[in-house]
Amino acid sequence: MSKSTEKTATKPKGIPTEQVATKTAYSFDFTITSDEQHEAAIEQMLAWEQAPDAAENKALALLADAVEAYETAQGHTPEPPTTLRGILEVEMFKRRIRQRALAELLEVSEPRLSELMKGKRELNMDFARRLYTRLKIPADVIFSIAS
């Protein structure tokens, strides 16, 4: 992982030099080639995520992309979930919501959603339609878990 700093300024025609802003551009080269580097990158990501300016940290996003590329190359990507519970948990994670908010989004009671997720209640057409229209879960995925 290397970091280089370069100052760049281009002077458009007709604008005095003192009005041209100089910006600092950062160039990060994150390439992960071993498990040790992967572990170090994960630790660095966790540290950067705790910082108050994590949302603006471009290096964090680049490092996350490098980690994802390494994990994909090594075959570490998990299979997509095949159960209703797994699919809904992924959706809750993506949306950063809890089960109560998901129940509100789907306009079902929290106990009913819980029963569906635990497999105590069958998936009906009304709930399948809500998964499709509100969560944009593909119909073929819904039908595969319903059968």
- Unreliable stretches, pLDDT < 50, 5 or more residues? 1-26
Major sheet: arrangement of strands: 1-2
User: What is the count of helical runs?
Assistant: 7
Could you tell me the mean pLDDT?
81
Instruction: Tell how many strands the DSSP assignment holds.
Output: 2
Q: Roughly what fraction of the amino acids lie in strands?
A: 5-15%
Shape: elongated
Order of helices and strands: EEHHHHHHH
**Structural class, from helix and strand content?**
mainly alpha
Helical percentage: 40-55%
How would you characterize the largest beta sheet? 2 strands, antiparallel
Quaternary status: single chain
Radius of gyration: 23 Å
Walkthrough of the structure:
Helices cover 54% and strands 10% of the residues. The protein contains seven helices and two strands; from the N terminus they run E-E-H-H-H-H-H-H-H. It has a two-stranded antiparallel ribbon with strand order 1-2. It is elongated and about 50 Å long.
Kindly list the characteristics that best describe this protein:
147 residues; mainly alpha; two-stranded antiparallel sheet; 2 strands; disordered N terminus
